[in-house]
Structure to design on (373 residues):
């Protein structure tokens, strides 16, 4: 209002003195200039007011719908989702407990270092949080068929499943693989307790499968006479494969050629360490121009040290992560009574944090997680 009064006064003054200071033309140009300045100032003021209101709205993180928060939290690390976000506020705890945060679960690296009992409880807790919306699961060294069965029961939306070094049997795979029909990528590398029976059942029921990893450790392959039956199962039951890894398999040239003839969409074939396979490179390039073959010559070294690290669990890593504590305590947060009491009991929150960071600094950050503050 003050600005408008000032503008009117200025125009009045100009009109009074126009006969002596300005010509008529100059007066009109000056008035147009003042009108333009006034319009620009008004728009700037409106923009600032709208910007302030918008900034106030986007700051209200706790008022975002749980699904939106869940999608944001899905980009955080497992540690943060389990121990940090639930303690911020009730709305964030509710959001991180929803399925959007647990559609992709990757604990493969950690599972190499933990005790079997802790791993079983962690897998069950995380898979349960997905509420049937699990799309990707990466976990290593499952010790029994029971955990594998539990995963299959909640695999209605599962697309990628990595289970390297797991002790699962042909029998259990044959029984429950029908529940994994949506899987498009499967990793059963170093699973020495399964064979052709399991692969045939997988190919029979997993019609959407386009990627298979069946790499073996040289030491595990040493005691076997042949794995021709596995190659035959792949060739006859998995025609849609585009990605196949079978490093250090005891297979022959004839079996590999049969796979190439059956899997016409194959784009990558890993044969490193398959010493009995002798492929004609010129023929392969002409017959399968889109195919990239690795091996059988091993141009890089096999990471035996990494395998050795995963062969047994580490007490230090297990104590640091304290998953035995987390798996039992975090599961209780779904109970409304315990949930309400948690926010009134600061001691429980402090205990959770202290237990999580109870190890020495040399044990911290081994998987890229932050050190203790």
């Amino acid at each position: 209002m003050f600005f408008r009064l000032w503008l009117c006064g200025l125009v009045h003054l100009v009109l009074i003195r126009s006969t002596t200071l300005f010509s008529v033309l100059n007066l009109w140009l000056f008035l147009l200039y003042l009108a333009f300045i006034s319009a620009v100032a008004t728009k700037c003021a409106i923009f600032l007011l709208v910007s302030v209101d918008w900034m106030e709205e986007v700051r209200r993180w706790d008022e975002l719908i749980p699904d939106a928060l869940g999608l944001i939290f899905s980009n955080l690390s497992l540690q943060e989702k389990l121990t940090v976000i639930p303690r911020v506020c009730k709305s964030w705890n509710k959001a991180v407990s929803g399925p959007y945060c647990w559609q992709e679960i990757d604990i493969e690296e950690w599972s190499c270092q933990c005790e079997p009992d802790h791993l079983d409880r962690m897998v069950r807790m995380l898979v349960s949080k997905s509420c049937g919306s699990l799309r990707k699961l990466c976990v290593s060294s499952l010790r029994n068929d029971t955990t594998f069965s539990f995963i299959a029961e909640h695999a209605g939306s599962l697309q990628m499943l990595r289970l390297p070094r797991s002790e699962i049997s042909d029998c259990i795979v044959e029984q429950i693989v029908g529940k994994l029909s949506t899987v498009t990528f499967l990793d059963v590398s170093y699973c020495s307790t399964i064979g052709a029976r399991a692969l045939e059942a997988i190919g029979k029921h997993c019609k959407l499968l386009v990627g298979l990893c069946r790499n073996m450790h040289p030491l595990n392959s040493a005691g076997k006479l042949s794995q021709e039956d596995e190659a035959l199962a792949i060739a006859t039951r998995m025609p849609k494969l585009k990605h196949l890894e079978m490093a250090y398999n005891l297979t022959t040239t004839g079996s590999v050629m049969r796979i190439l003839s059956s899997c016409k969409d194959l784009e990558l074939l890993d044969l490193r360490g398959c010493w009995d396979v002798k492929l004609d490179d010129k023929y392969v390039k002409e017959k399968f121009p889109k195919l990239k073959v690795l091996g059988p010559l091993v141009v890089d070294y096999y990471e035996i040290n990494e395998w050795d690290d995963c062969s047994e669990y580490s007490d230090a890593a297990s104590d640091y992560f304290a998953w035995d504590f987390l798996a039992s305590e975090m599961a209780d947060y779904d109970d409304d009574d315990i949930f309400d009491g948690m926010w009134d009991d600061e001691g429980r929150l402090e205990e959770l944090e202290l237990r999580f960071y109870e190890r020495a600094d040399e044990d911290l950050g081994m998987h890229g997680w932050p050190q203790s503050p």
Remarks:
- The first helix runs from residue 2 to 16.
